[in-house]
Amino acid sequence: MAILTTEDRSQESEVRQRKTSLYSVICALLSVICILSSAHAERIKDIATFSGIRENELIGYGLVVGLNGTGDKDGTYIFQPFANMLTRMGISVNAADIKGKTKNIAAVIVTAKLPTMVKPGSKVDVQVSSIGDAKSLQGGTLLMAPLRGPDGNVYAVAQGPVSIGGFLAGGAGAQAIKNHPNVGTVPNGAIVEKEVPVQLNDKNRLDLLLTVQDITTAKKTADRINMGLGGVFARAEGPSVVSIKVPDAYANRVVDLMSKIELINVDVDVPARVVINEKTGTIVIGDNVTISPIALAHGGLTIEIKVEYQVSQPPPLAPEKAATAVVPKIEMKAEEKKAPLVEVKGTTIGELVKALNVLGVTPKDLIAILQAIKTSGSLKAELVIM
């Protein structure tokens, strides 16, 4: 039997403290690694949707009344519908009698989106758009308008005050307009009358549709789902679809399974892409875009032409036929900007942006430069022109 002295016990306590400290450091490092590894991860619900869970388009025809003289002047779209509505209310009116007296009424197309499995009695937002020559829908009220689906059935009925989020005001020779007064919304203006039936808990298979098609992301999504479910249940069918077999543990509980899958994090692989909109001069450059070492030079030729008109009068004692004439004086100036040659040594998009800032290019010029870099083969990304 070994007898520990006070010194031995002190050394043993020190060793234990070192082990504990080392263990704490390792745990902290592992936590940091886990955080960093999931820093760029996104939830599946943010990058994909389940097949069958979607919005359904509804459309209908309606009348907006109560306008302050800004309704349809022609009235072609409202004569007969308005007369029919009054007849249903017990007021017999001839459509020809309404002609020229409908400046406070506007014909509109009513649209809405009906989510899946919304029960009757729920409310959804609707949008109204003028189809006539109405100047504004400001202050108007949408009368009862049935909204139909592609199958022709009525799924909702819309009615309520129209909000355009702007105004139309003016007088003789002056006018002020904010936003687009011919389109408005009716918040919670449609009451659902019929449900779009979808049975989720009876399914034995689910299809996950990726928002952005990418084979690598689809494969990673399937792998993460299998890890989360503890088995091989998911398989990537292509760049946009991941099929999932419902486990026996989730039979008749498919909604619970969908909720669990939506919260799984996936490292999304973003393709290298540069998007250019030449109409607006907008340029969006992705994070994975790289370039080969290049040298850039950019310059422009500016030509300015000025025309000044001078009066040429005849000299003293000139013949009577001599008259005053207007002589144009033309001045032309051509200037070519100096364009330094800038070398881009790095391969990141940051180096490219720094070089372009040195050149002082505008968005329009940057579009031409990016197209030239792509043509030279130095831009390692897909160039998308809108």
* Total beta-strand segments: 23
Q: How much helicity do the residues have?
A: 25-40%
Kindly report the average pLDDT value.
76
SS summary, helix count: 8
Low-confidence parts: 25-39
Alpha carbon gyration radius? 36 Å
Read across the widest sheet, the strand sequence of neighbours is 3-4-5-10-7-6
Overall tally of domains: 3
Give the overall shape. Answer: flat
Structural class, from helix and strand content? alpha+beta
Head-to-tail CA distance between termini: 85 Å
The biggest beta sheet is recorded as: 6 strands, antiparallel, barrel
What does this structure look like?
The structure is a single chain. The protein has 386 residues and is an alpha+beta fold. The protein folds into three domains: 56-192, no CATH class; 205-267; 273-300 and 339-385, no CATH class. Helix content is 26%, strand content 35%. It has eight helices and 23 strands. It has helices at residues 6-37, 44-47, 79-88, 95-98, 215-229, 254-262, 349-359, 363-376; strands at 41-43, 48-50, 56-65, 105-114, 123-130, 141-148, 154-161, 167-171, 174-178, 183-192, 205-210, 234-236, 241-245, 265-267, 273-277, 282-285, 290-291, 294-296, 301-312, 325-336, 342-344, 379-380, 382-385. It has a six-stranded antiparallel barrel with strand order 3-4-5-10-7-6. The protein has a four-stranded antiparallel beta sheet with strand order 2-11-13-12. A three-stranded mixed beta sheet has the order 16-15-23, with helices on one face. A hairpin with a 4-residue loop joins β12 (234-236) and β13. The longest helix has 32 residues, at 6-37. The radius of gyration is 36 Å and the shape is flat. The N and C termini lie far apart (85 Å). Residues 25-39 have low confidence and may be disordered.
